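=== RUN LOG ===
request id: a7f3
mode: sequence -> structure
chains: 1
length: 84
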Amino acid sequence: MSKWAIALGIIDIIVCVILIFVVLFQHGRSANLSGTIAGGAETFFGKNKGRHLDVLLSKWTTIIAFLFVIITVVLNGLKLAGKI
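=== RESULT ===
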C-alpha cells in the first residue's frame, strides 16, 4: 500500500466518525404530540435557536457526507487501478 492510500484511508475513517456524530446530534423531524408540548416553550422563549442549530447541522451533514463519498470513490478508484 502506498502512503497516500493509507492517509486517505485514515481520513476516510475520521470523516465517517464525524458524519455519524453530526447525524446523531440532529433532532428528529417527526416530533408529534410530545414535540409540541416540550418544544413550545423553546420556540417561545428561545426564538429560533433550536431551528438555527438544526439548519447548521443539516448543512454540515451535507458537506461531510459529500466529502465522505468523494474520498471513498477515490480510494476505490485507486484499488481498481491496482495502486493499493
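=== NOTES ===
Residues 3-80 form one domain.
Helices lie at 3-25, 33-46, 49-80.
=== END ===
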